[in-house]
Amino acid sequence: GHAHLTDFNLAIRLAPNTYATSFSGTRPYMAPEILLCSLGYLTGYDHRVDWYSLGVCFYEMLMGRRPFEYAVHSSSQQVLCLMSKSLIALPSQWPSDLISFISCMLRYEVGSRIASFTAFSQHRYMERINMNDVFARKTAPVFIPRSGTLNCDPTYELEMGIFDTSSTGRQRCRLLNSREEIEQKVNEFTQAFVSYNREYQCQMNAEVTNRVIQAARDFLN
């Protein structure tokens, strides 16, 4: 029940003083810098785009929709214009600190956006949360998923249907258009899925390290 944020699909590790330049991701969740870079207005972008995307996720969880709605065929220039000139709809009945928190996550200007864990955890809306307890997993989860099944939707098939426009892709979509077939594919993936236990892995790594150190000491003695 303790959530972990991951992005294995398009993750990249940037070296110090370097920037990413690719036009990658799902556009409704993209930060303005990615669009600006794709249009040639910026030479690159950094980790701060991820904080914007996280803000979009927060907004969507609270509102049931994304902060900016536009047609699929809208150009990047049109999307940028919408993002820079439109006010984000935030309910007046929300607490002022929550409004401030979401607004700071979704700032168009990178310099005024929440873009680090320090800024994130020190915002007044987050003061009610003990982040040390969160990291230590001392907080009670509000939802505990079943451990015996894969807790996800068959989004791979959905993404394939949206983005794969080749004749092969269309043919495969027709073959997998029934719910039963999709569920079968998910069940097959579930059976092959190997869970990762971070605590167990860290413990095993520590034991291996200790054995190596002890072996080195025995050899030297």
Describe what this molecule looks like in 3D.
- It is a single chain.
- The chain is mainly alpha-helical and 221 residues long.
- The chain has two domains: 1-144, Orthogonal Bundle (Transferase(Phosphotransferase), domain 1); 146-221, no CATH class.
- Helices cover 49% and strands 0% of the residues.
- It has ten helices and no strands.
- The chain has helices at 32-38, 48-63, 76-85, 96-105, 117-122, 131-135, 155-163, 167-175, 179-192, 198-220.
- The N and C termini lie far apart (48 Å).
- The model is unreliable at 163-169 (pLDDT under 50).
CATH H level, superfamily name of the largest domain: Transferase(Phosphotransferase) domain 1
Q: Uncertain regions: pLDDT < 50 for 5+ in a row? A: 163-169
Give the ordered list of helices and strands.
Answer: HHHHHHHHHH
Which structural class is indicated by helix and strand composition?
mainly alpha
The total count of helices amounts to 10
CATH class of the largest domain: Mainly Alpha
* Number of structural domains: 2
